[in-house]
């Protein structure tokens, strides 16, 4: 280390010690982003902001929340919602942000899939992103338990019970997860710990990794154009801003992000004030009661599609029990997106509209997930059960066909 | 232009998903029921008979006050709530405000046959009887006289809370109404009401959030519509009284509603201004690169 003689108490001295200007340059003004992007590229910053809203509102909620089955419901619905100044605002912000963040995650995910931003150098971005999706799912599930309402209790009972499915039962997994034979106080306190400590910690860590994985392969662009970043950056720095294919993260990219963020925040706070029931299920305003099963138990909307793959196979097939088949498909649904880059056999990075078969695959997948989500909420009876069955079958077929259709696209383009 | 097309696609699929999992799914999960009906046309009511309050006073004193208190007319309660609950199964209502709270036709029909008027005959099959005996043996004129009397002594105006206390609190707690004092607990002790109703009737503190005003209106007006076979009686509240009950449940269960509604405007207004400046700044910055 070179000795630094400038005083610690001077701007110059601080600069020598921390190299703030260099750091700012590397992270901001000379972090290059493609110019050919649309508003979907702002979803990362929208997500980061929503996550910040969750952290801040969560901190305020945690000051008054009591993780105890005897106290939790009233601490949320009386202390926070009625007594604490603006406690209701923080709870509505937290509940709505927890729901809306999944909408943005899905948009972010399918933007990546559409433009091929998960492959040929960008695999780590995709994988770290999917790990974030999984940890956010765990955070959503554990947080939903905390108000200790009817849906908290019964969703916890149903979902933890998945670990008693098939031969898992013998391992005593479900009792180990619950800390007892039924969902109880120990379940609440451990999920509280996960929700306010371990999961946020892990999420923050993976966010840092996610940002880091972006740095080397760079952000993709609308035409999946392979940009020579050094050459383009040189153009930009030389003042040839209009011709350069790149823009700096600050202020150009972020100025667009803030504009999109402005619109998003209007939408989000409109929901916070006027339309929050979709995120804060009315049934959960009934206190948890182990003796009364709600008429309809369903997860939050963002889990509905995978929940429906669990219920889809409703009769025994191939010598297996319906429940076991459902559990296998459900398990597959949780991890299959993770290996997307390896199921896509097309060697080129192109947006979906330049990959005819994949383009169709993409929109069928979107519609299928939509159908699964809607029917995941409806009672699985009569025709509904069959819609769920076929939608689950389509979901599986889409994944099985992915390597073949991506290869076929490549072949007809002459790339293979 | 391209961005607008993309936005339209995103909005379309988001809206379709929202419609599917919210309005559509809920319409399937909670089938629509007919609107509340406040004239109680189905009951065996007054049928236009005009009552005489003076005669009614005598009839009420002779027939009702053995069980019911009427504080307003000088008949105090002879038992405390615990003893009354144990004796009758449920604390009998004080009749001071009955003429104001309940529809006159419903009240007449109730006096004649309580189980039928409240649509709870399914609870009294196999020997059990409604705690209040029916007075169908009386002349229709006499029933009309008693209704007229109850109306004559009833207050003309009551607060939302008073209406809730008289109409609901004999069976239901609403503990958020007095969280630390506990005065809003159900008047009938739990063990008695459980025997009478089959379950402990729910605490209503958060029912405005869990059920919503529109469900509460149709439910209170006729519980069987939503929950066939429920032990909850149809109570025959007038529309005005029912509005007051729900207003009280809102004051208690959603006490920050006025604050929420007042804050929304300035909050969203600020964000609109932020969005405008953000777009202007973005346009300025991007002019240099396009």
Report on this model:
The complex is a heterodimer of chains A (416) and B (290). Chain A has 16 helices and 2 strands. Helices cover 64% and strands 1% of the residues of chain A. In chain A, strands 1-2 form a two-stranded antiparallel ribbon. The relative contact order of chain A is 0.12. Chain A starts with 10 loop residues before the first helix and ends with a helix. Chain A is mostly helical and 416 residues long. Chain B has 290 residues and is mainly α. Chain B folds into 2 domains: 32 residues; 221 residues, no CATH class. In chain B, 54% of the residues lie in helices and 0% in strands. Chain B is elongated. The two termini of chain B are 16 Å apart. Chains A and B meet through helix 4, helix 5, helix 11 and helix 15 of A and helix 1, helix 10 and helix 14 of B.
Topology, element by element:
The complex is a heterodimer of chains A (416) and B (290).
Chain A: H1 11-18, H2 20-29, E1 32-34, H3 43-62, H4 72-83, H5 87-115, H6 123-145, H7 150-161, H8 173-178, H9 185-215, H10 229-237, E2 246-248, H11 249-274, H12 304-311, H13 322-335, H14 340-343, H15 356-377, H16 383-413
Antiparallel strand pairs in A: 1-2
Helix pairs in contact in A: 3-5, 3-11, 4-5, 5-6, 5-11, 6-7, 6-9, 12-13, 12-15, 15-16
Chain B: H1 2-29, H2 53-63, H3 81-88, H4 98-101, H5 104-112, H6 114-117, H7 140-153, H8 160-167, H9 190-197, H10 207-210, H11 213-221, H12 223-226, H13 239-253, H14 257-287
H/E series of chain B: HHHHHHHHHHHHHH
Number of helical stretches of at least 4 residues of chain A = 16
Helix tally of chain B equals 14
Number of domains of chain B: 2
Beta-strand fraction estimate of chain A: under 5%
Silhouette of chain B: elongated
Amino- and carboxy-terminal Cα gap of chain A: 53 Å
- Reported CATH architecture of the largest domain in chain A: Up-down Bundle
